[in-house]
Design a protein that fits this description.
By secondary structure, the protein is an alpha+beta fold. It contains 2 helices and 8 strands. It is 11% helix and 22% strand.
């Protein structure tokens, strides 16, 4: 074999070796898998593009998979579609090869889903009323008593306080302090009462910030105590929805004559 032929043959072998080394060193960049966030009623958002692939000589770059999209919410959760993969990084100038296509996004999986908000006609109510008679709980201060009435979502998120009859005795309303965090914005307030009475309260269907409360599942909570210990409470589940009927919960030793209705 001539010297020129040997040189040409050796160059080919060298090129093949370099290409093989480059290909073996190319590893796609992947994103970590994470579940989609679940929230009420919103549509899924697209995932972000993947990171560009690693460049190498004499070959194509490989893009990574796109990030995962958050899930859309309601009661049957599902993941949003994955984002588009990032474009491959072009090969260095002067060498054979060009940038490769981006990887394919991977859909996420939803992780629970809050209760679905009704999608039909919204209710046209303007207020909700509630009444309850509190009873002696055999405390050392009875019949004097302190208490509060407030609204939460079905998942326990504070919405608004309707009434609180407690000033210094409020420290014994453990549930109210923990869940309503003493938020009494626009509530009817007074000092503790000398006797148990029937309480009549009204909700304007707005939260403590003045925003309209959407249709959905809620609960009304009454807590009352006539001692320096935590008293009894009652939680009444209800739906704010078109055609919601009045609710008359069963009496308990601490509460009676309860009625909840929309107007």
């Amino acid at each position: 074999m001539s010297r020129a032929a040997q040189s040409q043959f050796g160059g080919v072998i060298c090129g093949v070796v370099l290409a093989a080394q480059a290909l073996s060193a190319c590893t796609p960049v992947t994103t970590s898998q994470r579940s989609g966030s679940i929230f009420y009623g919103a549509a899924p958002t697209a995932g972000t593009g993947g990171v560009s692939g690693t460049p190498f000589y004499s070959g194509a770059g490989v893009g990574s998979a796109g990030n995962l999209a958050p899930g859309p919410g309601p009661s049957v959760p599902s993941g949003g579609s994955g984002g588009a993969g990032g474009a491959g990084f072009p090969s260095n100038p002067g060498y054979v090869g060009s940038g490769g296509a981006g990887g394919v996004g991977v859909p996420s999986a939803g992780t629970g889903g809050n209760p679905a908000i009704p999608t039909g006609p919204t209710s046209n109510f303007t207020s909700m009323t509630f009444e309850v008679l509190t009873h002696v709980q055999v405390g050392q201060f009875q019949p004097a008593n302190a208490g509060a009435i407030w609204i939460e979502t079905s998942s326990g998120q504070f919405v608004k306080t309707l009434q609180a009859w407690a000033f210094i005795r409020e420290i014994y309303l453990s549930k109210f302090r923990a869940e309503a965090m003493n938020n009494k914005t626009d509530a009817v307030t007074s000092a503790s009462l000398p006797n148990h009475v029937t309480h009549h309260v009204s909700w304007n269907l707005k939260d403590a910030s003045g925003n309209p409360a959407p249709d959905g599942a809620y609960k009304l909570i009454v807590e009352c105590t006539d001692s320096d210990l935590t008293g009894q409470f009652v939680a009444i589940d209800f739906m704010k929805a078109p055609g919601a009927a009045p609710i008359t919960p069963a009496d308990t030793p601490a509460y009676s004559g309860m009625r909840l209705a929309f107007q």
